[in-house]
Amino acid sequence: KKVAILISGGGSNMVSLANSMVGDHPARPCLVLSNVPGAGGLNKASDMGIATAVVDHKDFKGDREAFEEALISAIDAHAPDIIALAGFMRILTPRFITHYAGRMLNIHPSLLPKYKGLHTHQRAIEAGDSEAGCSVHEVTAELDGGPILGQARVPILPDDTADTLAARVLPREHALYPAVLRRFVVGDITRVDL
Ligand code: GRF
Known about the structure:
Blueprint: E1 2-7, H1 12-20, E2 28-34, H2 40-47, E3 52-54, H3 64-76, E4 82-85, H4 94-99, E5 104-108, H5 120-126, E6 131-138, E7 148-155, H6 162-184, E8 192-193
Parallel strand pairs: 1-2, 1-4, 2-3, 4-5, 7-8
Antiparallel strand pairs: 5-6, 6-7
Helix pairs in contact: 1-6, 5-6
5-O-phosphono-beta-D-ribofuranosylamine (GRF) binds next to helix 1 and helix 6.
Family: Belongs to the GART family.
Function: Catalyzes the transfer of a formyl group from 10-formyltetrahydrofolate to 5-phospho-ribosyl-glycinamide (GAR), producing 5-phospho-ribosyl-N-formylglycinamide (FGAR) and tetrahydrofolate.
Keywords: Purine biosynthesis, Transferase
């Protein structure tokens, strides 16, 4: 199985996913694509010998459909079986989601269904929650709303800031996403809870 990974930034989740797809793992990374030309994850992917591509949304002046057409052709040139969104910060239209229906995953830094959208750690702290975490879900037309395939939980400590909490969650993302992907590529959608 071939996995295309979409990023917008440092790509630490992409690195974890790529590093997990070795040996008897039934999948391999076939592409790392970023919507941001200088994304740090692109260099990491190249260093790992993975093909990279950039489709800069700024080249399409707000024409979301044209951007997604370019995205789809850049991705499909590598014929992936699965799309893994990993720190990809563009909202995708139903057209794109339908094209990859049933084979696109995302990782979100909250215990969904709580805190869809942005600033998830700050919101959990302000709500006085005792725990936070991350979720891997199938991507559907509802933002951060698809079936949850796995979650990892961490405690929120009294003196936590969004940054200290993010730093506690991120390593759990790096454990969760590969565990979910390993099952997903063989059609196993039993939930992973770490
Ligand atoms: C992570 O918190 C991830 O949950 C979110 O983007 C952040 C950065 O991810 N989607 P990465 O280091 O670029 O993988």
